[in-house]
Amino acid sequence: MKGKGMFGYYFDLALRSLRRNKVLTALMVMAIALGIGTSMTTLTVLHVLSGDPLPGRSSTLYAPQLDPRDMGDYQAQGEPPDRVTWIDGMNLLQAKRADRQALMTGGSVAIQPAQSAFDPFYETARYTTADFFPMFGVPFRYGHAWGAPEDAASAAVVVISSTLNDKLFGGRDSRGRMLRVEGHALRIIGVLGDWRPNPHFYDLNLKSYGGDEGVYLPLSTSQDLHLAHVGGADCWGNGGDGATPAHTAPCVWLQFWVQLDTPTRVAAYRQFLIHYSLEQKSLGRFLRPPNVRLRNLMQWLDYEQVVPGDVRLQNWLALGFLLVCLVNTVGLMLAKFLRRSAELGVRRALGASRRALFMQLLVESGVIGLAGGLGGLLLAYLGLWLVRRRPADYAPLAHLDGAMLGMTLVLAVVASLLAGALPAWRACQITPGLQLKSH
Amino acid sequence: MDIRPILSTLRRHKITASLLILQIALTCAIVCNAVFLIHQRLQQIDIPSGIAEHELLQIRFAYIGDRPNAYAQAQTDLATLRQIAGVQAVALANQLPLSGYSMSNSGIKLLPQQQKTSLEVASYYGQNLLATLGVRLISGRDFQPDELVDLKTALPALHSGDMKNLPHTVIIDQPVAARLWPGQNALGKTIYFGNDIPMQVVGVSSPLARPDSLQMGAQNSIVFPIRLTATEGGSYVIRTTTGDREQVLKSALAALKRLDPNRIVLEQRTYDELRHGYFQDDRAMAGMLAGVIAALLLVTALGIAGLASFWVGQRRRTIGVRRALGATRGNILHYFQTENFLLATIGIALGMALPYGINLLLMMRYELPRLPGIYLPVGALALWAIGQLAVLGPALRAAAVPPVVATRGD
Questions:
Q1: What is the pTM of this model?
Q2: Which of A74, A102, A292, B317 is deepest in the core (most CB within 10 A)?
Q3: Subunit contact A320:B307, Cβ cutoff 8 A
């Protein structure tokens, strides 16, 4: 027997053997299913949470950091703040040294629907300059974003999410309609398509996941209308706690993102940031030596530790649990294989090679692994369902995708083959015929 | 019972025995750390807030459009709330303990020109705050009405460094006093904020928990004599007499809506609901850890039971011979129980080092404290108990093997 036929024979032998000792088989399958189920649940959550929010674009997006603070609590080599002040944000924006750049912050605004049947409600907002949309590749369902002229003129225009458009206008093209925001009438010029980047990388000060905004308007307009800023501010000196800081306040409260298309541009931009810091220091605005960072999107998410500590802790626990389950399976397989010494001895005596016996036993382990993997898959679906019921803001994202589904089965089979290797090798160390004598 | 025959049997099953020991050691290590983590979370959940939790209500609004007379409106709102049946006291507060949403933190310096701040504290302010929250004054006095400064005046004064329009006094809680001046009287001392703005300590209150960031010192809080309005993000805080809080909440909300219908309710809840919400992640995590412990012990128990029944099956003839030679059922039962106890003990002993290793790793990654020694015996006891339970079934089956097996050929 060769190739496929051989495998089929081993598979048949494995099924017979597994049926012969149902309790032991069930124990092994259960142990693998439990271990795989829990680890795949936590691995899936980790996989979803540490994913790339903008695949294809993330490597050219950078978050520049400057250090405008005073000398209080100064430490050499300390990290600069992760946001910028109004003055620095405006300076960097106007310098236009990147391929694209956007200055932005979060807000929360009252929407007063024209239909009197609706009560006023609050909607999260993004106040930003125009490059936000082309830089992040935001899709539009109707209309388009505003441009530099609207930024300069503080135009009374607004872009809304498709969710808000569905809620207010039943999903129809609402371009040209007026939206009452905090008592001001803004003209709708665009409706977004499906835009839900997770993690909410460009502003991690509120929710790291599921924080997509309903309303987008020019930063200049938001300042002219005195719209409230949300997300807090980090202040020093006499900055106070700056709920909505003044433009001159010593507080960082705005996000600044740039797009840099080539490594040369990245290096040049880093030089520019150092140069800018030195210039501000000579002007007396900065007190510290230049301390800049230029992280790309994925490095930024890593630095901000966007994946909750609890999730990482759970992941370690689950992997520890899987290890215990595997050790457990190794023990049980050893017991099972050694119990069959007689049968194996007969097969050796009839001419089967050690290699053949080893393969046969490994196929048996693989079958156990596959059954355990299927059980683990069910448990992972159950586990993720439990995760989704949790109140955390990342909870709704916990779904098993194709890649993780495949990985579950592969992990289960590989784990069980590893677990089966030692017992199988041990069981093959049998002298043909010896077993025949003793019985 | 003599353990030498057991040891010599185990030596012939080295691989199986060491696997069992390894599994017990790993389980012991994980269980110790998981129990410790659960304990940590539960301790967190039990943190005292320092306020009259079961008597408080919170209402928070958002406003559309500007409110030029917000301060006068706030006084009317508070006066109206006081008239409602079942209301003991009312306040406007910038933030509440354990609300998970921190509006305000301050760095305290003990000397002007000091480079590093001495302590990061949560700063509370609002009118009639301490009395409404039920925070006691341990020494000193509460703020006088003429000490209170409006937030809309204080903020610009802070930015311009104009001392005249800033508060000059502060009340600190007892943990802050103990941290800043251990063993001394804090009353009358001066502390500095921002660019050396001096404030005099006029009162020391009972401990008051922070809104969040508990790792920075769960009860390091101070109170400023600053008034604010609901338009500036303040919450109405209502302390009820022992009565129906839900009813009071409904009447209060209706009364406030009558005074100004053009505001949106952001929050209306009892303080217990607020606190419950703050700790829901910790509760979920503790539940999950308990689940992991249960699953681990189950898997280990099943593994032990599986191996034990394999051994019993393998040694049926030996058992039969021993029974034929005069061993009682009790002897056989004890043999397997002792064997399991020995394996568990070796596993636990080896596993003792492992919990500390894992704990060190966790300490580095998740800022956890050192694992206290008390958790090791807990893990050990759990595994001994699980081992004995798991081996009982197979051991009883072994004890039931009749002596006649020795004479048969199987």
A1: 0.80
A2: A102
A3: no
Window B:9-28, CB contacts with A under 8 Å: 15-16, 19-20, 22-23, 26-27
Cis amide bond preceding A199, omega within 30? yes
Q: Are B307 and B16 in contact (CB under 8 A)?
A: yes
Q: How far apart are the first and last CA of chain B?
A: 29
Q: Which helix (H) or strand (E) holds A165?
A: helix A162-169
Inter-chain touch A73–B34, beta carbons under 8 Å = no
Alpha carbon A79 to its chain centroid, in Å, reads: 23
CA trace torsion A164, A166, A170, A175 (10° rounding): 60
Closest Cβ opposite residue A323 in set B26, B107, B284: B26
Calculate how close chain B gets to A387, using CA atoms only, in Å: 10
Shortest CA distance to B55 belongs to which of B128, B126, B123, B135? B135
Residue with tokens 């998740």: B366
Decide: A278 and A290 in contact? Cβ < 8 Å: yes
Interface pTM, i.e. ipTM = 0.78
Inter-chain CB proximity B300 and A320 less than 8 Å = no
Chain A touched by B295 (CB under 8 Å) = yes
Task: Encode pLDDT of A397-426 as tens digits.
Answer: 888 888 888 888 898 889 889 888 888 888
Report pLDDT digits (tens) over A302-349: 998 888 888 888 888 888 888 888 888 888 888 888 877 778 888 888
CA distances from A276 to A265, A281, A289, A293 (A): 16, 9, 11, 13
List CB contacts (< 8 A) between A69 and chain B. Answer: none
Question: Minimal CA–CA distance to A45: which of A323, A329, A313, A435?
Answer: A313
